[in-house]
Design brief:
Blueprint lengths: L1 H31 L7 H47 L1
Helix pairs in contact: 1-2
């Protein structure tokens, strides 16, 4: 019961954070982009993809930790509830 809700929240948080992380990463990539004319496109896509990965990592790491802790707490509460129902 609880684990399905947490799983759905985790999936939605993943989607939202991935989109937000890519947007922030593109912004970071534009800030870091070199103005070199010869390698403009190579440098642009390298910095944009690197920035997107950094943005996703920065936003996603705390959420993974929080949802993992929340999942463990819900598992403990479920075990307590199942043990009290048996008695």
């Amino acid at each position: 019961m609880y684990t399905d809700t947490v799983r759905k929240l985790f999936i939605w948080a993943t989607v939202i954070i991935a989109i937000a992380g890519i947007a922030i990463g593109i912004f970071i990539g534009y800030l870091l982009m070199s103005p070199a004319e010869g390698f403009y496109y190579v440098v642009e896509w390298t910095w944009l993809s690197t920035g997107a990965m950094i943005g996703v990592w920065i936003l996603y790491s705390p959420v993974v930790i929080a949802f993992h802790g929340l999942h463990k707490i819900i598992q403990i509460l479920d075990n307590i509830r199942k043990n009290t129902e048996k008695e």
